[in-house]
Design a protein that fits this description.
The chain is of the alpha/beta class. The protein has helices at residues 12-23, 37-41, 68-74, 97-110, 159-163, 173-176, 194-203, 223-231, 329-349, and strands spanning 2-8, 29-31, 55-56, 95-96, 114-116, 120-124, 130-134, 139-147, 151-153, 169-170, 186-190, 209-213, 235-238, 241-249, 253-261, 267-271, 274-277, 281-283, 315-317. It is built from nine helices and 19 strands. Strands 1, 2, 5, 6, 7, 8 and 19 form a seven-stranded mixed β-sheet that branches. α1 runs parallel beside α4 (97-110). The longest helix is centred in the C-terminal third of the chain and has 21 residues, at 329-349. It starts with a strand and ends with a helix. The structure holds NADP nicotinamide-adenine-dinucleotide phosphate. Residues 58, 156, 190-196, 198, 215-216, 220, 222, 242, 278-281, 327 line the site of NADP nicotinamide-adenine-dinucleotide phosphate.
Length: 352
């Protein structure tokens, strides 16, 4: 069987592409990715980066409000284990990243999207129809492809950072922040962007103190997020510093962080039972190396302005995998829609 359109990736761009492709009767097949240790530990889970966040306050149509009953009816019981915990009282709250993704997934399923919980590990784009290879070695033949594999969090690459991964070092506060090892303890967050503020703010709910270590004297985060950090009495921004070593032992895991002043190179040690990295992202394009045009950072290149075309005709890119600039859930969803429309028009022009 030759698929009309295969979508690789299951974040907001992937599901939006699926919703549009399914409504256009293209019967999309989504590879949502493997839920294994490797994908989880590098920050590449099925349902994308939003699966690793808390509340989403800026996705249009999801205002801060009572959402529980809507979520209860829209997300089936079989997926309830993935949902964020229901608040104990009837308080108002925003939609969470995982819930938003499950709603998108359900919306795609409602229109007939088929889903495989596998990774695509290799692609053959040299002749059409294309051939995609799954992690189980299966070959999938298709007329068009939408790449929506997103991006994942970066680490500094320190030996000590790798040594203490899962023992206090993490790139996902939401995944790990509530663990007992971090409760009422000082923590370090590295970075000065929106993610760093978001992580620091989240961690401040559990930690005794959060040191936000930033290599410059000004935050990159948006003004509103900067205020959130600066107004939070538990967050202390450590300006002009970088993390040079994570210290600890096998029994306790992380106990301290060694920081270096980026201006005068002096060093200091701070108490920390956890170190959270929030220093940007890397696109999930390793399996596409040499197959599609990429920019120097590995992001897929759109070859025509205002189109989701890649360097191979019939292969489209949507979401963070082709966007190192906006990187928002709503922009990812928007380009997912564009990619589905581009694929639909490509298939129609080919009479497929
Ligand atoms: P980012 O904006 O690229 O910020 C990365 C931060 O890490 C910067 O402060 C950077 O320092 C620092 N950094 C990078 N490499 C480093 C290194 N090797 N050593 C030390 N520090 C390093 O990334 P992001 O915060 O993940 O945000 C990405 C995008 O997502 C942005 O568009 C952001 O607006 C968006 N976002 C939005 C929200 C929200 O609206 N709630 C939440 C999260 C993310 P410099 O500043 O010195 O370069």
């Amino acid at each position: 069987m030759t698929e009309k359109v295969v979508i690789i990736g299951s974040g907001p761009s992937g599901w939006t592409a699926a919703i549009y492709a399914a409504r256009a009767n293209l019967e999309p097949l989504v590879f949502e990715g493997l839920s294994n240790d490797e994908n989880m530990s590098v920050g590449r889970p099925p349902l994308g980066q939003l699966f690793l966040t808390t509340e989403v306050e800026n996705f249009p149509g999801f205002p801060f409000g009572r959402l529980e009953s809507f979520l209860d009816s829209a997300i089936g019981k079989e997926l309830s284990y993935l949902r964020s915990p229901t608040p104990k009282d009837d308080e108002h709250h925003a939609v969470t990243g995982p819930d938003l993704m499950l709603l998108m997934k359900q919306q795609a399923i409602n229109f007939g999207t088929r889903i495989k919980a596998e990774d695509i590990v290799d692609v053959h784009f040299d002749s059409s129809p294309f051939r995609l290879i799954t992690n189980s070695g299966e070959s999938v033949v298709c007329h068009s492809v939408i790449i929506a594999t997103g991006a994942r969090a970066n680490y500094l690459g320190l030996e000590s950072e790798a040594k203490f991964k899962n023992q206090g070092v993490s790139a996902c506060a939401v995944c790990d922040g509530a663990l007992p090892r971090f409760r009422n303890k000082p923590l370090v967050v590295v970075g000065g962007g929106d993610s760093a503020v978001e992580e620091a703010d989240y961690l401040s709910k559990f930690a005794s103190r959060v040191y936000m270590v930033h290599r410059r004297d000004a935050l990159r985060a948006s003004k509103i997020m900067q205020q959130r950090a600066l107004n939070n009495p538990k967050i202390e921004v450590v300006w002009n510093h970088g993390l040079v070593e994570v210290l600890g032992d096998d029994k306790q895991g992380v106990t301290h962080a060694r920081l270096e002043n980026t201006v005068d190179k002096s060093e200091k040690k701070v108490d920390a039972s956890g170190v959270f990295l929030a220093i940007g992202h890397t696109p999930n394009t390793a399996f596409l190396k040499g197959k599609l045009q990429m920019n120097p950072k590995g992001y897929l290149v759109w070859t025509k302005p205002q189109r989701t075309y890649t360097s191979v005709e019939g292969v489209f890119a949507a979401g963070d995998v082709a966007d190192d600039y906006y990187r928002q859930a709503i922009t990812a969803a928007g380009t997912g829609c564009m990619a589905a429309l581009d694929a639909e028009r490509y298939l129609a022009a080919k009479g497929l």
